[in-house]
Design goal:
11 helices, Tet_transcr_reg_TetR-rel_C_sf
């Protein structure tokens, strides 16, 4: 039995497609309405303007990641297991949303306030403070070498995101590998990133 998609869901699916393909500046409400198979007046009935729709779409995407990461951060896992779970969850999300990193990077360079607003208005805040405290505790317990937690977290996120954001350079210029092989490399990132992080911080 097929589940009927609501008008609002059709709009959000169409808007995600248009925003990712055209970006904030290039997206038009008429095009989103056409893709959703509705008229523009009905689109504005559900979402009064493009900014409201964009923030809802962005929250719908990132809202699948942040709560998952926060659950991991709040868990009772030891610090090394927590780091591995964090990396695994992040890579899994990126594998399922491979167009997102470049899209977010482009929008941050042009419309940073819009992206930040989407996070703030929807309560999408990673609990990095708790992770920072646990890293300091691990340093005090001599589990890991003295390191600025900000650098550690930035390194983890960067190593997860950049192979997706810079895939054209990696895949077509630096390595010249077919799509299937590059996808396999992306899946291997979980293990590779964890091992690089582990061996760089463990005492």
């Amino acid at each position: 039995m097929e589940v009927e998609i609501t008008t609002e869901e059709k709009i959000l699916i169409a808007a995600r497609k248009v925003f990712i393909e055209k970006g904030w500046d290039g997206a038009r409400m008429q095009e989103i309405a056409d893709n959703a198979g509705i008229n523009k007046a009905l689109l504005h009935y559900y979402f009064r303007n493009k900014e409201q729709l964009f923030k809802r779409v962005f929250a719908g995407i990132v809202g699948k990641l942040i709560p998952n990461l926060n659950t991991i951060i709040q868990s009772e896992q030891p610090i090394f297991e927590k780091i591995q779970s964090f990396i695994d969850a992040y890579i899994d999300f990126l594998l399922a949303n491979q167009e997102l990193p470049l899209f977010v990077a482009n929008e941050l360079s042009r419309n940073a306030n819009l992206i930040v607003g989407a996070f703030e208005e929807n309560g999408l805040k990673p609990m990095v403070g708790q992770m920072v405290m646990e890293i300091f505790q691990a340093i005090e317990n001599k589990q890991i070498r003295p390191i600025n937690p900000a650098h550690l977290l930035m390194s983890i996120v960067s190593m997860c995101v950049f192979p997706f954001m810079g895939r054209s350079i990696f895949q077509k210029v630096l390595m010249q590998v077919p799509e299937e092989m590059y996808q396999e490399l992306l899946k291997q990132r979980k293990k590779e990133i964890y091992e690089m992080v582990y061996h760089s911080i463990v005492l």
